[in-house]
Design goal:
heterotrimer; A mainly alpha (about 220); B mainly alpha (about 290); C alpha+beta (about 170); B: about 290 residues; Cytochrome Bc1 Complex, Chain D, domain 2; elongated; C: about 170 residues; alpha+beta; Rieske Iron-sulfur Protein; 2 domains; three-stranded antiparallel sheet; 1 helix; about 35% strand; iron-sulfur (chain C); 2Fe-2S (chain C)
Chain lengths: ~220, ~290, ~170
Amino acid sequence: MLQKVYDWVDERLDITPLWRDIADHEVPEHVNPAHHFSAFVYCFGGMTFFVVVIQILSGMFLTMYYVPDIIHAYESVYYLQNEVTHGMIVRGMHHWGASLVIVMMFLHTLRVFFTGSYKKPRELNWVVGVLLFFVILGLGFTGYLLPWDMKAYFATVVGLEIAEAAPVVGDFARVLLAGGDIIGAQTLARFFAIHVFFLPGALLGLLGAHFFMIRKQGISGPL
Amino acid sequence: MHRGKGMKFVGDSRVPAEKEPNIPKDYSEYPGKTEAFWPNFLLREWMVGAVFLIGFLVLTVAHPAPLESIADPTETGYIPLPDWYFLFLYQLLKYEFASGPYTVIGAVVLPGIAFGALLLAPWLDGGRERRPYKRPIGSALMLLGVISIIFLTWESVDQHDWEAAAQQGAIEDEVEVDESAAGYEIYQTQDSCIGCHGGDMQGGAAGPNIFQSDYDTDEVIDIIQNGIGEMPAGQFDGSDEELETLAAFIANDGQDPENGEGGGDEDAEGNEEENTEGNEEEAEGEEENE
Amino acid sequence: MSEKNHRVSRRQFLTYTLTGVGGFMAAGMLAPMVRMALDPALEAAGDSEFVSVGLSEDEVSEEPQRVDFSIELDDGWYSSEQSRSAWVLREGNEILALSPICTHLGCTVNWGTNEENPEEFFCPCHFGRFERDGTNIPGTPPTRPLDVYEVEVRDGMIYLGQINQRG
């Protein structure tokens, strides 16, 4: 049955080469923990991606209950946390996942640096990776404000003051991020848009480039 | 692969009619212990992922995401703290060389240099050598960066007043005060109490909400007579009997203790949950002036 | 030949295990999320509270009278006041509180507004008519009687609860 469905699609779209390309690429011995246990350091990239997937899924489900509005944002988070079945778990996944993705990404960055994997011909992939690092820090910063509780609000106040310290463009950057002179309704709407549309869009694009380059160039050889 | 003239397509599309068989590559033709991504390697990777996921779910169930009370921009006493991964940046701005007139150094120059160097690492360290100990400068700088981030985060965590932080921002239930109680009437005659704690007893300009702490009647009498923290002593103006009525009323969370309905008990329980432990000491005397 | 068969079965075994582990991971991730999304559909409908309409038991007569009252409507994190009305009348020993929503297409019925049938509820939209106890009159558009509120009498005052269908 499944085979027939596959054949039907394959006849029309010729997906076998695509599928074989994904399934058949070789994984060398030196990244395989079954052969050298120290190769577990090579799994941090995959774990980062796994947590990113958790973040995207839990985030999608959280927006079913969340409203980005300073009057109702807090109420809606409180509601989904305390009244909705498993809401506490899903919000917990998003909250702890945010920390874990940073930890995993940090470890992945260290692995790539200390194995010298960023060197020719992989310079571009390193740059894309560092950009991913910035995007994820940006997601952490904008997402922190969304529950609109005391902690969120004052952390954002401090964060925007740091942005203001930049010379020449500081004021401009702060007003641009806050959406006005005060941190309030417009800031929340802006941070929501950045957190939910702009940065995830950038994240997916960069991730696609990251994976494409890994497949094209292969995993860096043993030291 | 067949190319050029004579090639057959599916219908009028550009999908070739000749199909490749869906057969995995034979890895025995590769040297060494290379293995296939699917399913061999991915299975190993996903088993790690599954174990990780179980641990992760246990974490989310054991430690629900924190939620404080709704943001109140007028609250001035709140000590802000960014999420932990920004702590190193936050801590950097505390040092003399990176604050005040030099804020720009702490906020822009130093992080800019660090992250700029990270971004440009392939060109700053252009040598062919990959082993970390064969390129000591690059490795040393990276180690320095990692150690300073860990150190700054550590310092920031160490210097933060976690006890005060645990108390702030807690979600508080509005206490419903029984306005017909004798204690409430006595309170309304005490101008010096109202001056700080407000006419509704829920806190005012200088004093906190009276009901946010959990004292018994004797302790309340003692605090009213002798003061606590910044709260001065001897502010009560009335007979000992009135003092006791008022104290019992406060200890009973704003319900008339004579009234056997037990409404106060429920409130007391609710309060214990909402109040973080150790809240009592400072809460009563916080920012009491004059 | 036999070795080749062996290799294929090992590969298949790995593929099945891989799909199993993948399914487990997907289920572990998605189960709480999907449960959260389905929550409104799975949540048992809560019994709504009874609201006083400011009418005492003695004031209710055989003649239907209209009462307007408001209820607190909780919609997740948002609660609002909504106004409702009911036709309250005495039917034998019972007190009936009829919903004024016509069971045909949801217009509002009124008592005795049709000059030809003064002792009936009348819906102006499609001339639907109901008896005094809310029973729909055959031959008019509505196909079932008017809905009724749950009625409770506390200390002689009328309290109305949720709306239930009849018949």
